Every structure is written in structure tokens, then in C-alpha cells.
């Protein structure tokens, strides 16, 4: 009996918790590089990349070969019980890649939320303080502490009551929406004045480019002033590079483009080419503030994920994916600007590297987000064989996270579908 998307989605509805959303009513069967085939045999161009997890594409041969080789050795010991070389080697390589001219150490875990949680734990242990400042529009995860940091209540914390305290909200700078660097810095100073003294703040957590929040990049001037503010008050700067890391913005970490280094950097998503892996890298003395036993996890830094990540790093070097990232980004932005020229509902085309988004407004007015059209474009694109994602505080942003390994021909086909959708719907 052949399987269908409809029948499997019915089974999903009956068996899977309602809170696990279903963006597309499609059940994937297999994939390769930048395309996915569903259970009915239909092929889709993948401009979602598993939400920024597949910078090296689906089933990259080098990544799969590394995992297959590791399967013949061992799959689990728990690193805290019996160490294994891939974990150590990966930490060495991450220490060399993360921005900052200082000695570093790394912790490996499993998910982005777990990485952010551990970064906060480390910051609290290192400073003896407990408060944290996060930003409007930020997304840091779905666990309890990270929900406190995430600047979007619905849907992530809807109906769950108040999250853990000690988290204060500053305003993320965004020129498009009238939030200047000065205003953003002033919002932090307001926290110091109204809510918590600087000596009570352990860390400020920021995405160099907001992910779920709309792909807004923090200006270099802001990051430099934020770095100075943290130094002035003995506050640690945490860069959440879960979505921006592993080459998505054209440098391996986005902070390389910001002119400053964070004290702690979180990473996950594309670091292991589709295998669950995340981590925290930071100044050695800060990372060592937590006593033995205070960090880790049963599956943290799985051998399979570690060898996958080592392979991903080799792929980036051998295939020059950072340069390819810039080329992909420029090609996408050029195509989107051509569509924008015909459809003024597209109020902005933006992105660092290949972390690309367009934002839709009614009559070009940034105060009138057009989420309805975004939803229609996502649906129509899927009907035409292209998988897209939306994001942003008002769901009026279309984001593109296509694998960096996608061929130009496939990129152009995807862009042609987006153009058709706007021609038909806008």
C-alpha cells in the first residue's frame, strides 16, 4: 500500500503532540544536497535547509562517510565516563575558529537551547551574578531559561505562565524600523536604572544577526559600543551564533564581521551537517569557572556528531564554502531585488552572506507588515515545488536558508518560482 502525505499527516495529528508545529503538510522520504523528495515521489527545492542546519547540504558524501566509519568504532560512551578523540579534536578546531585573540576552551552539548542554557550557567559561575539582558525579537530556544531570553511569547511560551526571572529586555537596533544604535544602548542603560544594577548582570546575550526575529543584522557600531559597555561593567558578552554560525553569513562566525569578540559564543545547527551537536566556546578562564561535573550531558558531544562536524569543517575548506556563501548570497539578493522592482510590497531585501530575507509591507510602509501575503507565497511556492520559511515578529519576513552547496541552476529555479508567486499573488 502506497503512503501519502495526507495519510501520514493524519497519523501525525493523532500521535504527535499538538505543540509540535507542521509548517508544511509534507512527509519527506529522502533528500540529496538541496532537494527533498516526499513519500509520494515529488521533488522539492529546499530553501529552508532544516532551518539553517544544512549549510553543507543533505547527505554530503564526506559527512556520511565519516559517520559510517565511526559507526564501526563506537557510538556512545558518555564523554564524561570515557573520552574519545573526535570530541577533543573538534574542541581544538572550534577554539581556533571562534573570534577572539585569547585562549579558549569549548563545551559540546546536543541542541542550541542547551548551548545557550550552559552559556548562562557559565556566565553566572564566572561573574558571581545572576541577571541576564536579552533583546526584543531575539530567539534563543524553547527550554525554560531560553524562553525567558526569547523575545516572542506567542507561540513559544503561550499558556505556560511566567518564565524564570532575572532576565531583562533591551531593544535590538534596527534602522528599518526606526530603532537607532543610540536608542538601543539607552534601553540597556534604562535596565540599569530601573531594573537591575550592572553589578547584578552576569551577561548580555545577543544574536549578531537575528534569526527567527527577522534576519536583522546588528550594526558594527552597536556591537562595538556593546562590547565597551560590557567591559565597563564587568558583564560577559554572549554571542548566540546558533543560526549564524557554520558559515551562513560568509564568515564562519558572524562576529568576525562585527569588529569585536564575545566572551562566550554558542553554536549548533549546521556545525554537524544534520547531526545533533551544539556547544559553547569562550575564554578559557571563564569556561573553567564551573567545577568538574557542572557541565556535560549523557549524549553531549556524541561521537557520531563530532566526526560529522569534523567532516563539515573539511568540506568548508576543500569546497571553499565561505567564498561560495558570498556568491550564493549575491545571486539571491540580485534576484530578489529584480522581483522587488516589480512588486513594491517587498519593502526590504537584506542579508549577510547567504542569510537572506525579504520583508513585506502594505504600500511600502514599515508600520504595516503584510503577513498575509507571506503566508500565501509560502503556500504557492510549495505547490510549485519550493520549500520556504517565514519569520519575524509579525510573520511578514520570508527567509532563505538554502544549502551553500546548491548549484546556480537550482538557485535560479527557486528564484523563478518566487518571482512567479509574487506575479500571481501580489
From TrEMBL:
Sorted UniProt keywords: Aminotransferase, Pyridoxal phosphate, Transferase
Alphabetical list of Pfam families matching this protein: Aminotran_3
Coiled-coil segments: none
Enzyme Commission number, as recorded: 2.6.1.48
SUPFAM superfamilies in the record: PLP-dependent transferases (SSF53383)
GO BP term, example: gamma-aminobutyric acid metabolic process
PROSITE patterns in alphabetical order: AA_TRANSFER_CLASS_3
Keyword Transferase: yes
Gene3D superfamilies for this protein: Aspartate Aminotransferase, domain 1, Type I PLP-dependent aspartate aminotransferase-like (Major domain)
InterPro entries xref list: 4NH2But_aminotransferase_bac, Aminotrans_3, Aminotrans_3_PPA_site, Class-III_PLP-dep_AT, PyrdxlP-dep_Trfase, PyrdxlP-dep_Trfase_major, PyrdxlP-dep_Trfase_small
CDD domains (UniProt xref): OAT_like
Names of required cofactors: pyridoxal 5'-phosphate
Gene Ontology molecular-function annotations: 4-aminobutyrate:2-oxoglutarate transaminase activity; 5-aminovalerate transaminase activity; identical protein binding; pyridoxal phosphate binding
Reactions mediated catalytically: 5-aminopentanoate + 2-oxoglutarate = 5-oxopentanoate + L-glutamate
Class of the enzyme per the UniProt entry, highest EC level: transferase
Function summary: Catalyzes the conversion of 5-aminovalerate to 5-oxopentanoate.
PANTHER family with a match to the protein in the record: AMINOTRANSFERASE CLASS III, LEUCINE_METHIONINE RACEMASE
Family label: Belongs to the class-III pyridoxal-phosphate-dependent aminotransferase family.
The name this protein goes by in its record: 5-aminovalerate aminotransferase DavT
Amino acid at each position: 500500500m502506497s503512503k501519502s502525505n495526507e495519510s501520514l499527516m493524519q497519523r501525525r495529528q493523532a500521535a504527535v503532540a499538538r505543540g509540535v508545529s507542521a509548517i508544511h503538510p509534507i512527509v519527506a522520504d529522502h533528500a540529496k544536497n538541496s532537494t527533498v523528495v516526499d513519500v509520494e515521489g515529488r521533488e522539492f527545492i529546499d530553501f529552508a535547509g532544516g532551518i539553517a542546519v544544512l549549510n553543507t547540504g543533505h547527505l554530503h558524501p564526506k559527512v556520511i562517510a565519516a559517520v559510517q566509519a565511526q559507526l564501526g568504532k563506537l557510538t556512545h560512551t558518555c564523554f564524561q565516563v570515557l573520552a574519545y578523540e573526535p570530541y577533543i579534536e573538534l574542541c581544538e578546531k572550534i577554539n581556533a575558529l571562534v573570534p577572539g585573540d585569547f585562549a579558549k576552551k569549548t563545551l559540546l552539548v546536543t541542541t542550541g537551547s542547551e548551548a545557550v542554557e550552559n552559556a548562562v550557567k557559565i556566565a553566572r559561575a564566572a561573574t558571581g551574578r545572576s541577571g541576564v539582558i536579552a533583546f526584543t525579537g531575539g530567539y534563543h530556544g524553547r527550554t525554560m531559561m531560553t524562553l525567558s531570553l526569547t523575545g516572542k511569547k506567542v507561540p513559544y511560551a503561550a499558556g505556560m505562565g511566567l518564565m524564570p526571572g532575572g532576565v531583562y529586555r533591551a531593544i535590538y537596533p534596527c534602522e528599518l524600523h526606526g530603532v537607532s544604535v543610540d536608542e538601543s544602548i539607552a534601553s540597556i542603560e534604562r535596565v540599569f536604572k530601573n531594573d537591575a544594577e550592572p553589578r547584578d548582570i552576569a551577561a548580555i546575550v545577543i544574536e549578531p544577526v537575528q534569526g527567527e526575529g527577522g534576519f536583522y543584522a546588528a550594526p558594527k557600531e552597536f556591537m562595538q559600543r556593546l562590547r565597551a559597555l560590557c567591559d565597563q561593567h564587568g558583564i560577559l558578552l554572549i554571542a548566540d551564533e546558533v543560526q549564524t554560525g557554520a558559515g551562513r553569513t560568509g564568515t564562519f562566525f558572524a562576529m568576525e564581521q562585527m569588529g569585536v569578540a564575545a566572551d562566550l559564543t554558542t553554536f549548533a545547527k549546521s556545525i554537524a551537517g544534520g547531526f545533533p551537536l551544539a556547544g559553547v566556546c569562550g575564554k578559557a578562564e571563564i569556561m573553567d569557572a564551573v567545577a568538574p561535573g557542572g557541565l556535560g550531558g549523557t549524549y553531549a558531544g556524541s561521537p557520531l556528531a563530532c566526526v560529522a562536524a569534523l567532516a563539515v569543517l573539511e568540506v568548508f575548506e576543500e569546497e571553499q564554502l565561505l567564498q561560495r556563501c558570498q556568491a550564493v548570497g549575491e545571486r539571491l539578493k540580485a534576484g530578489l531585488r529584480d522581483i522587488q522592482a516589480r512588486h513594491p510590497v517587498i519593502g526590504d531585501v537584506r542579508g549577510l552572506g547567504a542569510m537572506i530575507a525579504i520583508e513585506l509591507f502594505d504600500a511600502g510602509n514599515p508600520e504595516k507588515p503584510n503577513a498575509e501575503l507571506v503566508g500565501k507565497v509560502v503556500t504557492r511556492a510549495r505547490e510549485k515545488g519550493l520549500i520556504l520559511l517565514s519569520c519575524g515578529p509579525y510573520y511578514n519576513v520570508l527567509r532563505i536558508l538554502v544549502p551553500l552547496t546548491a548549484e546556480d541552476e537550482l538557485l535560479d529555479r527557486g528564484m523563478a518560482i518566487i518571482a512567479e508567486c509574487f506575479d500571481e499573488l501580489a
